[in-house]
Amino acid sequence: MNYLKKYITSILIIIISLLALMLLLTLLSYFDLISNKAYSILEILFIIITMFISGFITGKKSTSKGYLEGLKVGIIFYFLLILINIIFIKKFSLKLIIYFIILILPSMLGSMIGILKKNNN
User: Fold this and answer.
1) Phi, psi of 103, rounded to the nearest 5 degrees
2) For 8, what's the count of Cα atoms within 13 Å in the CB-facing half-sphere?
3) Can you tell me the distance from the alpha carbon of 53 to that of 59, in angstroms, rounded to the nearest whole number?
4) Contacts of 36 (CB under 8 A, 6+ apart)
5) Nearest to residue 61, comparing CAs of 73, 75, 51?
6) Is 44 in contact with 99 (CB distance < 8 Å)?
7) pTM of the prediction?
8) Residue 104: which of 25, 26, 14 has the closest Cα?
9) Can you tell me the distance from the alpha carbon of 29 to that of 24, in angstroms, rounded to the nearest whole number?
10) Domain boundary assignment for the chain
11) What is the pLDDT of residues 81-114, one digit of tens each?
12) pLDDT on residue 23
């Protein structure tokens, strides 16, 4: 149960923080405080940072093989994004799939750093 709790916590952190950050970003865009180009860049940046933080937290809770733990969190989130895409957008492209796969990398990196920080303390 503790094993599953680690991944559910990481996915919930991703979802809640992305919803909060995207709400803030949307409000800034709605009131014309940021441009469309800045919106696109910040959107990608927020997702990458959130995936990194989630991987870091997973790494802090893990005992070894940070890259594998981050890969698991990234793949779970990948399938969640694919499911959301199938339900709401119903449009696939190779560019979208590559983008989703690239989002796994910050999770892996964060988890590796999380394990290193845990072992150094």
Assistant:
1) -70, -15
2) 5
3) 10
4) 29
5) 73
6) no
7) 0.83
8) 14
9) 9
10) 2-120
11) 888 888 887 777 888 888 888 888 998 899 888 8
12) 93
